[in-house]
Amino acid sequence: MKELQHLNKYFYKYKTHLVIGIVITIVARIFLLFTPRYVKKIFVIIENAFKNNATEAAVKADLTEAILYIIGAAVVGGILTFFMRQTIINVSRYIEYDLKNEIYEQYQKLSLNFYKKNRTGDLMNRITEDVGRVRMYAGPAIMYSINTVALFVIVIIYMVNASPKLTLYTILPLPILSIIIYKLSKEIHKRSTIVQEYLSKLSTFTQESFSGISVIKAYGIEPQTALNFNTLAKESKDKQIDLNKVQAWFFPMMILLIGTSNLLVIYVGGMQYINGEIKSIGTIAEFIIYVNMLTWPVATVGWVTSIVQQAEASQKRINEFLKIVPEIKNNNANHSEITGDVQFKDVNFTYDDTNIQALKGISFHIKPGDTLAILGKTGSGKSTVLDLVGRLYDIDQGSILINDTEIADLNLVDLRNNIGYVPQDAFLFSDSIKTNIKFGKHDATDEDVIEAAKNAQVHKNIIKFNKGYDTILGERGITLSGGQKQRVSIARAIIKSPKILLFDDCLSAVDTETEEKILNNINKISKGKTGIIVSHRISAAKNADKIIVLDHGKIVQEGTHDTLINTDGYYKELYLKQLSENTANPL
Ligand SMILES: Nc1ncnc2c1ncn2[C@@H]1O[C@H](COP(=O)(O)OP(=O)(O)OP(=O)(O)O)[C@@H](O)[C@H]1O
């Protein structure tokens, strides 16, 4: 229960609902317990009528009164039971909602390292399945526990009053029932976890094969894929049948134990009646109803125990994530003015997980409004420089200054709001093109969106789609070409009009002519803005105010296009190579 203490703050938050729920539960039980007592009364009325030769009218009047009491109590009890669920179960839904938000907020704060260390499936499971199990504790488990305790206390008092000996025999099989249900629930949970695992394996497999359907078809491996699917589906079916075997025991066990208790009541009660220890046969009828009333709540003791154990395990997993202190923290609550002056001073950076030293002693200075181009072989550290400017990671040694202030001392929100980042793999959400472009600036007008798309040279493509800017992208929508995706992603960055623009090899999928146009537009609109362009192409770098060439995390060349094409080294080699390759579009 230690882990579940995390929920206490929520129970406190919804204390009024909970208290009302508990009171309603107790009152509802009291009303529902009118039934057995009035059933006994009916027996007594009839027994007395025979003994005393009562008139038919008098018996009818007494019976009608008793029946009306039973109906009235059942109606009130039913209404209160409805409100019991409406209060306690609703609280569990509120807690589920709060907990999901708490986890999601924490996810957003955690750094990229966290996402690399944890699988997406695991992150999703904690916010869905684990929270779902915790909800079962916060709602049904609490409701059934209160219900059971309230019912038990009241019923036992009534029963002892009626016949202590019969009470003892009646409740004797109940603990056995509880233990059996507990064991069954545990086994059901164990087997259903396995079933769940197989279901998620099956859905991951299907999802991957649909995403990679073009590769599957191109390689003609449909029969093999179908065979793999069949194997997984068969295993999944076998596990489901295993589960059904245990589940099938649940109700027969309950019926058996209820039957045993009923027989005991009839036998022991009958003997007591014959011996004159109980006065009315109605007591036996009353006890039979008690037994049936108690069975379900007692069975739930076993079920609730298993729910609490599962919730404890799930909350433990959730707490593991909630306790992680975000690596990248906002160290400045005040507003930071960002102008776009970016300076790296002897920066070293090593990735934690791979221990790869991606940057070694990097130094450069970009003044507001200037453009820096970074070139270098694959894996030389270019993207890492951009990630560090956006403070996606904190550095090990050296310093990164923005406006002469250490990057870690700037307000993180202001820093990121002033950065427009276009990643290597343009990621677009399954939404309209317009929403994807507006992602960087929610209050952008339609004119702003069109302007940004024009500058990114993608407007003409968009208006050719039937629904233009309202065209939906992604799974249920259309698929953009690699170059179109990159340009929508550029429009998303420039619409923000940020102080610093970061382009990570984001023009690789567009032809050099379009690249030229985009770069010209960016030059025009980014007057006074700082740009860092990572590229493998000279065409993207040649107009930059400064160019650096990286190799194995070190700067091996730096200068302008004119100086570098006249200096032996990587830049000149690349220039000559691309010049000969691209005679149609001279550099
Ligand atoms: N998230 C990461 N975790 C661990 N190591 C990384 C990570 N990203 C990059 N690296 C490693 O750091 C080094 C520099 O990578 P980086 O992505 O900065 O290179 P790059 O020059 O941008 O490459 P490319 O041109 O292929 O995009 C590489 O050796 C890479 O394997």
UniProtKB/TrEMBL annotation:
UniProt entry tagged with the keyword Coiled coil: no
First and last residue of the signal peptide: none
Record's GO cellular component terms: plasma membrane
Entries under SMART domains matching the protein: AAA
Domain of life: Bacteria
ABC transmembrane type-1 domain residues: 19-310
Domain ABC transporter residue range list: 342-577
Transmembrane segments annotated in the record for this chain: 12-34, 66-84, 141-160, 166-184, 246-267, 287-308
Compartment list: Cell membrane
Membrane topology classification: Multi-pass membrane protein
A GO term, aspect molecular function: ATP binding
InterPro entries from the UniProt entry: AAA+_ATPase (IPR003593), ABC1_TM_dom (IPR011527), ABC1_TM_sf (IPR036640), ABC_transporter-like_ATP-bd (IPR003439), ABC_transporter-like_CS (IPR017871), P-loop_NTPase (IPR027417), Type_1_exporter (IPR039421)
Keywords recorded for this protein, A-Z: ATP-binding, Cell membrane, Membrane, Nucleotide-binding, Transmembrane, Transmembrane helix, Transport
Record-given protein name: ABC transporter
SUPFAM superfamilies xrefs: ABC transporter transmembrane region (SSF90123), P-loop containing nucleoside triphosphate hydrolases (SSF52540)
CDD domains (alphabetical): ABC_6TM_TmrB_like (cd18541)
Major localization listed first in the record, in broad terms: membrane
